[in-house]
Amino acid sequence: MLENTKKGTVPMRVLSLCEVDYDTMVSVINMCDAIIRDYQRDEGRQWSKELLLWMDMARDHVNECISELVDMPAVGGLVNENNELGMLVKLNAALVAARMFPE
């Protein structure tokens, strides 16, 4: 990936935007982790909808990076990793929602 960047086949601007999105997403996921740990201490406590809002924010940043990478064949590996990360964020949101709103 970096080799292609040096040759100028991948615009550095796009990669920089994805890096910012990724860093922000990692911060958001760390915040989600802290919220989950707080709720695990108080087992009987209801989970906050705030957690789902943070998870939506993480998903938004995954989608932002995906939209920047559209039609850039040189970054196929990055697109695949980003798609996998997006699936993990969606899975985690579904698991949290199931725990927050049990049937």
How is this structure best described in words?
It is a single chain. This protein is 79% helix and 0% strand. It is mainly α. The protein has one domain. 17% of the residues are buried. The model has no long low-confidence stretch (mean pLDDT 77).
Terminus-to-terminus distance = 46 Å
Helix vs. strand class: mainly alpha
Average of per-residue pLDDT values: 77
Main β-sheet description? none
What's the gyration radius in Å? 17 Å
Morphology call: elongated
Low-confidence parts lasting 5 or more residues at pLDDT below 50?
Answer: none
Helix content: over 70%
Query: How many domains in all?
Result: 1
N-to-C SSE string, H for helix and E for strand? HHHH
Give the helix tally: 4
Strand content: under 5%
TL;DR?
The chain has 103 residues and is an all-alpha fold.
Name a few traits of the molecule.
103 residues; mainly alpha; elongated; single chain
Topology:
Blueprint: H1 2-6, H2 12-41, H3 49-69, H4 76-100
Helix pairs in contact: 2-3, 3-4
